[in-house]
Amino acid sequence: MHSPLRQGTELCQSKATLPESLLRLIVQDLFEPAVDSLEKKSFLEAFSEKGETPQEVLIFSEQLLEKARPFPIHSTFEGKPLFDSCGTGGGGLDLFNVSTAMVPILAALGIPVVKHGNRGLTKKSGSADAIEALGIPLQLTSEQAYQSLQENGCVFLLAQSFHPHFKIIAPIRQELGAEGKRTIFNLLGPLLNPAKPKAQLLGVFRYEHLNLFHSILNSRQTDHTVVLGRDIDQKPIGEVSPWGHQHFLSSPTDLKEVLSCLHLPQTTSTESIQSVLVANAKESVEMILSVLKGKNRGLARDMVVINATVGLLTAQGAALFSEAKEMVEACIDSGKAFQKLQQWQQWRPQ
Questions:
Q1: Distance linking the first and last C-alpha atoms of the chain
Q2: Whole-model pTM?
């Protein structure tokens, strides 16, 4: 009798969908240190080559959430939807950390933000790298993380802290990554937030991932916007595009109508995408600070504003797009967003 991983590899090679019962056994074996790493690698390659279905990714993510360190609350906080903003990564574009810059803005506007992220694997500054460079505590227990949410209105959950079992699979992921091969783990990041947020903005780099995540987040009954934004040269950027070049899917339905403005340019800047690329976390933080202090009025600000606007609309429900955008801009210009960031920077866990 073949092992679950061998059975899974053979089914993937014949392009068959994996049964839920088998997939559950496969997830167990992938995180079992005693199981042969070559079998794990062969399965991950075959699974990726077959193409993962929304149901397969959903089952995989639910299994891994069961293994995660728990967060004290789920879905909502004080009657408001918990919000997360992240992307799949893997686009090879070293943008400054736009979704990290959004956190103090949305928190200052009363949106409880539970951002889940990691260090940069495919980019020079991952969200965790930027949080660390800002001087915000990274290594938190579940109770300390909840304390941050209560006291600051926002928290950053370091993926490797809440998913310590990922250490087991890390060498195989690195090996496949060095060979230029993606795996299901490239898709799972945005789905593994242990707080199980009720609202989510998710950026992707591939067109087929729009429907994949839209379908999964619908299954989870998560209010969401999944976006494939493109720069002025039509290259994917993994964020909402201020140039108006994007595909997106959202739920609930009325959100889609509100967000139809996203097809209109939201920037008058003549700067190219090169102006918002960074070499490291320090540069990313300098750009974030220049936006939140109101000093940067160019493309970086426009990117943060448009993404925070979509985040606000996704978390709060349908409203006028122009009103939401004005709220975000006023939050920056009044200094409230920067004050919120300073509060978060000065906070220390007990």
A1: 52
A2: 0.95
Residue 244 Rama label (left phi>0; alpha psi -120 to 50; beta): left
Q: Is residue 337 within 8 Å of residue 108, measured between CB atoms?
A: yes
CA distance 38 to 117: 28
Spell out the long-range contacts of 233-236 with Cβ–Cβ below 8 A and sequence spacing 24 or more: 233/273, 235/93, 235/273, 236/91, 236/93, 236/204, 236/205, 236/206
Give the list of residues 6+ apart from residue 175 with CB closer than 8 angstroms, or none: 41
Question: Quick one: angle between helices 336-346 and 281-292, nearest 10?
Answer: 140
Helix (H) / strand (E) containing 223: strand 223-230
Q: Torsion angle, CA of 187/163/285/228, rounded to 10 degrees?
A: 10
Share of the chain above pLDDT 70, in %: 99
Q: Amino acid identity of 119?
A: R
pLDDT tens readout for residues 301-323: 999 999 999 999 999 976 899 99
| Rounded Cα gap, residues 92 and 205, in angstroms | 10
Q: For residues 304 and 306, what is the distance between their CA atoms, to the nearest angstrom?
A: 6
Answer yes or no: are the C-beta atoms of 236 and 262 closer than 8 Å: no
Q: What is the mean pLDDT of residues 278-300?
A: 97
